[in-house]
Amino acid sequence: MNVHGYIKEEYVTDLGNEKFVNSFENITFKLEDLQIYIDKFIEIRSSGRIINTNFKDDEWILNAQKNESKSLIRFNTKLSTEMKLLLKCFTILGIIEGHVNAYTQLRIKYLNECLLQCFGYQAESEKNVIAFESWLLSKTKPLLSKLGPILNQFLNFYNPILKKELLEISNQICIFVDGVRTLPNFKDTLIFDHIITDFQKTWTDYEKLIFFPIILWWRVTLVIPMRVIEFCSLANDCITVDSSNRFLLKIPRKKVRAKKQNEINIADVLEINEDLFNLILEYKETTQDFNKTPYLLSYDAYCESLRVKKSNGRQLRKNNIDMFGTQQLSSLLVYFYEEIVEKKYNFTLEKIKLLDTRHYAFCNMMLQGFNMLTIARIGGHKTLNAQMHYFSHLENLSQSSIQFLAEQHNKFSSLPDQSSLRSEEKIIKAKSLLKRYTEDEIKNFFSMEFGYCTFNPEKCPVGDCRHCSHLYIPADQFNSQLIYWLNDESIRLTNLIKEQLELMKSITCNMTYNFGTFESDPIAQSELSFLAANSKKLREQKAQNDAKLNLIFREGALHDEE
């Protein structure tokens, strides 16, 4: 039987150990195959690998191996019968694959914990996804590096309904590069953002109908750190205006009351700006001719896509499918990259995953000076520690934004503020606007230590020429001293930005919070807000400075005096 690309071969009972192991990747758990696993257990016990135990026992003893002593494997008695069978069968596959005792113990210990805390609900739902994310976020980085492959292998074997969403969360949280979780290339992310902005100005009626959910996903989840399943489950009546004329968005998450002293009351209604409110309203108007469902996103509108029609996607509608879910959103994002990003805009970008916007939203809130309690309530975290791992992104995100800004300063004579993730300035296929001045024009400028000021030094709003867009340095003045002057400032600003980020982390982690009233230390919050604004200013200063360095290195030739 073919199940989601994983093949269960009918003659599995006749396979020897070697072939059985080779087929492991292709096996998913089915209760009707239970006798196969029991027979394998008996074979393993007969070989002496497992001793003094039966398949039905909640404790298995693994015999001593090379450089290892006997080991006890426990299956949690609080697990449901089916979950316990699932875990036992998975253990058998690992033993056949040749896992040592210590690794088998590690796998079963944390899978016991995962199943008990995340899959204790009777029906699979978004609760499982939320609990799974929270459980992972409570673990340390070294442990997560070990859990990643274990969870991926187990989820493929378990094959739950929400396997795709669970795997995406596992990969996002557990995979590290040089000790930091991976996010898409920052430059590609910004270009994607500008494509979204431009696309909304030029889309056809068909493109608007089909790809509007992608626009909504990007605009909403880049600001509010929502889970993908929460976004797809937004109700048709999710937006309201209260008596104070505030625009509100209701998120489909259970408003959980804190049970412990340091647990947080999660918010399910958030205030949004008018632009976001109107965007959601526009989508509702665009899809109003389709069958109304309890959900905001229209599955019927999705089925109008030529790609869906070709793949007989409308057939699902006959099976009472009325929810535009995470699978449809994921497919639509792939389609958007192919039809809009690559064909219409002629860009080949590193693809953003659905969950990435949640990470960006958390990082943006941190860089803007929001404290941990506010971020946790908005992001749906029950504890403050759940967001700690997002700090690992901040330095890389900050440096990437500086590099991108520096490139843009080399393309434009003046730029609006782009030091945050979002910007309305169109940068797609931008041409260089660097000014070249004649000798007569230069005579009207003010000579500085390096280059010329095209403004007026007495009225300088910046204070340091290296941070100023009004500094003009002719190519014949490019020399080693100029490079040292700029490079020293680049190093100084790099260290200062890093120190500011560390200080922001320290303040928000050590701030006094009132979990009952959601209040925080006003003095510490004021300091955090100041550091956030100053850090933003430093990033812009470094971008201006580094743009000048980039120009010198690109031009190449230096004019040092003999």
Question: Any overview of this molecule?
Answer:
- By secondary structure, the chain is mainly alpha-helical.
- It is 51% helix and 7% strand.
- The protein has 20 helices and 15 strands.
- The strands form 6 sheets. Strands 3-4-5 form a 3-stranded antiparallel sheet. The chain has a 3-stranded antiparallel sheet with strand order 8-9-10.
- Helix 3 (81-97) runs antiparallel to helix 4 (101-118).
- It is globular and about 95 Å long.
- The chain starts with a strand and ends in a 7-residue tail after the last helix.
- Mean pLDDT is 80; it is low at 1-25 and 413-434.
Helix content: 40-55%
Report how far apart the termini are.
Answer: 79 Å
Strand content: 5-15%
| Spans of at least 5 consecutive residues with low confidence | 1-25, 413-434
Helix-strand blueprint:
Layout: E1 2-3, E2 6-7, H1 17-22, H2 34-46, E3 50-51, E4 59-62, E5 71-74, H3 81-97, H4 101-118, H5 126-137, H6 141-158, H7 163-174, E6 176-177, E7 180-181, H8 186-202, H9 205-221, H10 228-232, E8 239-241, E9 247-250, E10 269-272, H11 274-286, H12 299-302, H13 306-310, H14 326-344, H15 356-367, H16 372-379, H17 391-409, H18 439-442, E11 446-447, E12 452-453, E13 471-472, H19 480-510, E14 513-514, E15 519-520, H20 522-555
Antiparallel strand pairs: 1-2, 3-4, 4-5, 6-7, 8-9, 9-10, 11-12, 12-13, 14-15
Helix pairs in contact: 2-3, 3-4, 5-7, 6-7, 9-11, 9-14, 17-19, 17-20, 19-20
Keywords:
single chain; about 550 residues; mainly alpha; three-stranded antiparallel beta sheet; 20 helices; about 50% helix; about 5% strand
